[in-house]
Amino acid sequence: MKETKPWVKPALELGPVLLFFAVFMLFRGEEVNLFGREYGAFILATLIFVPVLALATLIQWRLTGKLSPMQIATLVLVVVFGGLSVWLNDPRFFKMKPTLIYLLFAIILGVSLIARRNWLQMVFSDALPMDAEGWRKLTLRMALAFLALAVANEIVWRTMSETAWVYFKTFGLPLILFVFLMANAGLFRDHALDKDSDGTES
Fold it and tell me: What residue intervals traverse the membrane (predicted)?
């Protein structure tokens, strides 16, 4: 994998999201005429977000030489559901996208536990060395967390205002994930591996 500066990856991942938020807030409550159609702030922000995210993902792939399965799945769903929202001028499709992403991740992690093939460990073991039991516990917790996030997203977009959902998506979800990781600090510590351990025993 190619080496890049530490700030590049976070900038490429957070930049499109913050741009979506900025465009939405700038045009909130207004209608913009594009190509003979009237678009609200949410659809306009989505129209800008989709190609920007695709470009950021392409740049990251060119710089690092790799993309995670999560990034690829996210990009595909963003293009599909963002495109449907813009095409049909209906924000509901894009609001449903996080639900489907989190459900997909929860299912993948759940299947990996049932199959006793910890895919999370395969992907992140170099960055987070833990024993097998630690990875099993983390995978179960993450599957449940993703399921809870899917439910939370459905509740927010179906019962709250569009602005509330944008705040939730932009700041709420990342904060929840951050708190989740911090809450698992004890797990990371208790199951951490020495550099010379192979992780086959708990």
Answer: 7-27, 39-59, 71-88, 100-119, 140-160, 166-187
